[in-house]
Structures are given as structure tokens and as C-alpha cells.
Amino acid sequence: MSTTIQFVKYQGTGNDFILLDDRNETFPVSKELIAHLCHRRFGIGADGLILLKNAEGYDFRMVYFNADGAEGSMCGNGGRCTVRFAHDLGIFAENTRFIAVDGAHEAVADSEVIKLKMSPVKGLQKQESYDFLNTGSPHYVTFVDEVAKTEVVTLGRTIRYGDIFGPLGGTNVNFVEVVSDNHLKVRTYERGVEDETYSCGTGVTACALSSHAHFGWQGPVTIDTPGGSLCVTFQEIAPEVYDSIYLIGPAKRVFNGEVQVS
Ligand SMILES: N[C@@H](CCC[C@H](N)C(=O)O)C(=O)O
């Protein structure tokens, strides 16, 4: 027997998601089904799928799955798109508080721009050729001369599955070029999509904090990704411990649809 599923497609700087209103808990979660829906040839096509659920004490809960169908860690752009979705559903007017896999988040929906408060970050590990930090998702950050000439997929995949991060569940991998003070260009290989995406919200957040650790930038940091520009603000509350981190940028509805699943 086949079922019809109503969905809405959103994108935040080109990181695209299938959003489902699952407040009635009817979506039949399965890795195969989610991977199928995210497939760009056989399904709707997306970098991930997000369920918006009820959550006591919050406006809603965000449950994020990567395109491979597995539940992911925090997704910054997905968080911004979920806030836009909740706003479109009439769940809140301007300010919201919701819960995700990494804890509580606050956000503001102001015209097309969503300002999302990220979880505090501590434990930025500076290595000789890269930094590693967790901004809700794990991120490897490395500075390069020209991101346009970087083999993002080949190098990203090697690092994600390599001896250091492979056994730890892998990592997202960001290649960063300094444009000028407080201005970066970033390209990201995303774990769970297993490809370069147009933008990664937790990734650009990691790159902004990494730039603070290397160059003492205070922000706001503007980050150009292949899908558009984002802004990150933050405060360092102790050496290399960050709070009041905000990821700011557009999140847009692309289309509504329905899909048959058997
Ligand atoms: N696109 C996301 C990152 C999603 C998490 C990641 N793929 C993982 O599970 O490691 C973002 O915008 O932060």
C-alpha cells in the first residue's frame, strides 16, 4: 500500500532540505526511505531531511537526517530552514526557542534572514595543519591559498575516512581562504552527504571561530560559500571558549509538494 507524504523544500545558502511537519508523529522513519527521498535522481533531492515535532517546553523539536538517511548531528543551515518553516506554519511570530540534538536554540526570523543561536563551543584543537572543533557537528578546518583550486571532494573524503577521523565516526571538512580581515571564502565536504555541499552552517561557524583563534578576529565574520554569504558573530568568554554564537543568513521556501511512498 502506498502513502502520500506532504513536504516543503527549503534552502539556506544552497544547503537544501526536505521539511516535514511531523507534529502528529506519522512519518515512518527509516534510513532507506529518507535516503530515497533525498536522492537527486530517484527522489525529491536534498542534502538532508528534517522533521518538525512537538516538544514540551519549546516551540518545536528539530530532528535532522543526512542525505544518507542516518540521523545527523546539528545542522546550522537546516536549523535556519526549520525556523523559517516553523514561522511559515504560524508556530511563532518573531522569536523562537526550540530543541535540537545538541540542546536548546534561540532564533529570530526577521524578513528573509534567520538569526540562529548556536551551542557554546569549547575544546578547539589546534594542530599543525588544521583545527578540529565541534560546533554541534564535528569540523576539520584547514586554511588554503585558493579554495577555488582545492580538490574539495577528493581531499575531504580522504580526511573524513582517514586514520584520524574515520574511526571516530568521521568529520566534516572545511577549506578556508582568507579574503581580508573578518572575511572568508569556505568550501565544505559534508559527512552524511559524502560530497561538497553549497554551504554548511556549523562549518562556517567553525571557520569563524578558527579564524579568531588564529588571527584574533572579533567578528562579525562574513563567509562566502558557493551558495551565498553568511555572517557569524561570537564572544570569547575564556581562552578559546565561545558563547553567544550566532549564524545569520537567508533561509527560503523553494516549493511545496507531495510524494508517494510504498
Ligand atoms: N549542513 C549542515 C551540517 C550537517 C551535519 C553534518 N552533515 C554531519 O552530520 O556531520 C550545517 O549546515 O551545519
Automatic annotation (TrEMBL):
Its EC number is 5.1.1.7. GO terms for cellular component: cytosol. Substrate binds at N15, N66, G76, N77, N172, E190, R191, G201, T202. InterPro entries: DAP_epimerase_DapF. One of its GO terms (biological process) is lysine biosynthetic process via diaminopimelate. GO terms for molecular function: diaminopimelate epimerase activity. Pathway: Amino-acid biosynthesis; L-lysine biosynthesis via DAP pathway; DL-2,6-diaminopimelate from LL-2,6-diaminopimelate: step 1/1. The active site is at C75 (proton donor), C200 (proton acceptor). It is found in: Cytoplasm. Keywords: Amino-acid biosynthesis, Cytoplasm, Isomerase, Lysine biosynthesis. It catalyses: (2S,6S)-2,6-diaminopimelate = meso-2,6-diaminopimelate. SUPFAM superfamilies: Diaminopimelate epimerase-like. The record marks H139, E190 as: Could be important to modulate the pK values of the two catalytic cysteine residues. Homodimer. Catalyzes the stereoinversion of LL-2,6-diaminopimelate (L,L-DAP) to meso-diaminopimelate (meso-DAP), a precursor of L-lysine and an essential component of the bacterial peptidoglycan. Belongs to the diaminopimelate epimerase family. HAMAP family: DAP_epimerase (MF_00197). This is Diaminopimelate epimerase. It comes from Arundinibacter roseus.
